[in-house]
From TrEMBL:
SMART domains: WD40. Residues 261-322 form the Anaphase-promoting complex subunit 4-like WD40 domain. Coiled coil: none annotated. It holds the Pfam family ANAPC4_WD40. Keywords: Repeat, WD repeat. This is Anaphase-promoting complex subunit 4-like WD40 domain-containing protein.
Length: 324
């Protein structure tokens, strides 16, 4: 049985990440906790709503109801990157070459590493943001679809239409597909080469957590009493193919997923606080953590592939050492 080092904090954990191999936990009150030779805390936003791990620059980018965007580094240094006045920053994303994007109302902003900022206006509210894995391109989830921009050029954006409220967005690691989470219990996807649609429905609840496998051949998702893992090996993605269902536990809902950094394995968190790991090839399961006080809201693997950080809606967080 793997060992668990617990960290109990009062509040709702939004994101768990490793920065320079130091586990960090971002909370809804704007505090970022870390386990670095003891429990340490820094304050980012005054009320934190969104957070994103910038893997290239090893920083946590946060945005919140105070209208500010911050960078948090592993050494505890907090830097203000942008401000939107008194408007809420509802989504953030980290891109290549030190760029970040953040959503405020109907506008998406891109801040480049040199501090210059460009605004991209939309007819409806910006709900989610993500950068493509290659090149300076980013996607915006919005009502009735998604919009793709090339912020370094003045070219016309690409509009991907599909009726309904799209709340989050993710590119596949190879850049061939774009997938959005929806207000209804479904995912929607586009093959970017030709705009072909992919509808992934049948979830009993909203999908709030997505994770691509290391080589992008699978997309794991929450929103059901199992991790729903869609196959993306074929040129048209999962169309006409059934997903894997891993870690089924009666009526206990999966609330968070995180694919292993190099193997076809996914860590699965549940609404009762349990965490398991499941293998795609044969659905073999390993218990990582027994049920806790609240639903798992965040999961992250470290670079050495031996630890998993987890956070919950009630603040019981921790580190699972799977080699113990």
């Amino acid at each position: 049985m793997p060992t668990v080092a617990p960290l109990d904090i009062d509040g709702h954990c939004i994101t768990a990440v490793f920065l320079d191999d130091v586990p960090h936990f971002a909370f809804a009150d704007g505090a970022v906790h870390r386990l670095d030779h003891g429990h340490k805390t820094v304050q980012a936003n005054d009320g934190l709503l969104t957070a994103f791990h910038d893997t290239a620059n090893d920083r946590l980018v946060t945005g919140g109801e105070d209208g500010k965007v911050f960078s948090v580094k592993a050494n505890g240094v907090v830097e203000e990157l942008a401000t939107a006045g008194r408007k809420w920053v509802t989504s953030v994303a980290a891109g290549p070459q030190g760029a970040i994007a953040y959503g405020v109302g109907k506008s998406a902003f891109v801040r480049f590493a040199d501090g210059k900022t460009k605004e991209f206006q939309h007819p409806r509210t910006v709900e989610g943001l993500a950068f493509a894995p290659k090149g300076m391109r980013f996607g915006v989830a919005r009502y009735n679809g998604a919009t793709l921009h090339f912020p370094a050029t003045e070219g016309k954006p690409t509009e991907l239409e599909w009726a309904g409220a799209h709340t989050g967005v993710a590119f596949s690691p190879d850049g061939n597909f774009l997938v959005t989470t929806m207000q209804e219990n479904a995912l929607h996807g586009w093959k970017l080469a030709d705009g072909k649609h992919m509808r992934m429905s049948g979830y009993p609840a909203k999908v709030k957590s997505l994770s691509w496998s290391a080589r992008g051949k699978w997309l794991a998702s929450s929103g059901a009493p199992a991790a729903i893992v869609w196959p993306f090996q074929a040129k048209d993605g999962p169309m006409g193919k059934a997903p894997l269902e891993l870690g089924t536990r009666g009526n206990t809902m999966v609330t968070a997923v995180a694919c292993h950094p190099s193997e076809d394995v996914v860590a699965i968190g549940y609404e009762d606080g349990m965490v398991i790991a499941a293998r795609f090839a044969d659905a073999k399961e390993v218990l990582l953590r027994r049920p806790g006080k609240g639903a798992i809201t965040a999961l992250a693997w470290d670079r050495e592939e031996r630890r998993v950080a987890f956070g919950s809606a009630t603040g019981d967080c921790g580190i699972i050492d799977i080699t113990a």
